[in-house]
Design goal:
By secondary structure, the protein is of the alpha/beta class. It has 2 domains: about 10-70, Signal recognition particle alu RNA binding heterodimer, srp9/1; about 75-135, 2,3-Dihydroxybiphenyl 1,2-Dioxygenase, domain 1, CATH 3.10.180. The protein is built from 2 helices and 8 strands. The strands form 2 sheets. The protein has a 4-stranded mixed β-sheet with strand order 1-4-3-2, covered by helices on one side. The protein has a 4-stranded mixed β-sheet with strand order 5-8-7-6, with helices on one face. The longest helix is centred in the first third of the chain and has 12 residues, at about 20-30. The radius of gyration is 16 Å and the shape is globular. Keywords: Dioxygenase, Oxidoreductase. GO terms for molecular function: dioxygenase activity.
Amino acid sequence: MGRPARMQLGALTIAAARPRILARFYSALLGWPYVREEPPKPGDPPDGGYALVCSPEGVNEPALNFEYDPHYRRPAWPSVEDGQVASQHLDVGVDDLDSAVAWAVECGATLADFQPSQTHRVLLDPDGHPFCLCL
């Protein structure tokens, strides 16, 4: 059997302790619409729930889903033995690293202490996920 004609990445789902807060962060950072949210399920904390951020009309990039994970632990960056590992991260293309870092920090990100390259900057979002701003 061959690959179906249409196989298109539609969304990336990110586990979080505070998904709706995290979705608002990425909405502001990227300038993308905050599309919808769902409240926490019974028994979940007030910051639980689900939220969706989609690329703007005319931009064909995957949506970002944020869902509550009751066992979420902030990853260590860079990774450390026996620590929680960031199994993936987002790379965001930018034209100017300094202004992009300033904007990300204004939105609520933290610049990581360890910076492995001159062509990108590693930051941590409000739930501790690393992401990169890349030239």
